[in-house]
Structures are given as C-alpha cells and as structure tokens.
User: Which sequence fits this backbone?
C-alpha cells in the first residue's frame, strides 16, 4: 500500500522509497515513540477517527498501521 508508506515517510521525514512493507520502528531511522504519536495524530486528522491509547501503542510497523486502518474500516 503505497499511501501507508507515504504517510509514514512523511511523518518520519524520509523518502517514501525507503519504507518497505516489512519495516518496523526498529528498522526505520527516526521512528521512535514521538513519531508513533505523530503518526497516530496524522491518521486521526486525515481519517476523522479517534484512536485509543492501546491502538497508538501498537503503531510500531507498516503492517500495524495497515491493520489499524483496516480495523476502522479504512484502506490506504
């Protein structure tokens, strides 16, 4: 899903080509807890949804972001 990768790249301020589907907070430069919170905020704003704390804590990989969006009936 290129749009998920683009969103993550935007928050991390890296080239979207650097974001792979299998990437996690461990493999991507700049992805820390603050970045996860910023990514959660961006998801909430763009999709007009509210994430609870447990969902925000799970934002640690590209796959987790996709799964989170799917649980909210969204796809990117």
Assistant:
């Amino acid at each position: 899903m290129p749009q998920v990768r683009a969103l993550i790249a935007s928050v991390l301020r890296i080239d979207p080509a650097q974001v792979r589907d299998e990437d996690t907070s461990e493999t991507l430069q700049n992805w820390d807890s603050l970045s996860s919170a910023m990514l959660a905020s961006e998801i909430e704003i763009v999709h007009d949804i509210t994430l609870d704390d447990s969902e925000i804590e799970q934002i640690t990989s590209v796959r987790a972001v996709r799964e989170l969006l799917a649980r909210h009936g969204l796809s990117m």
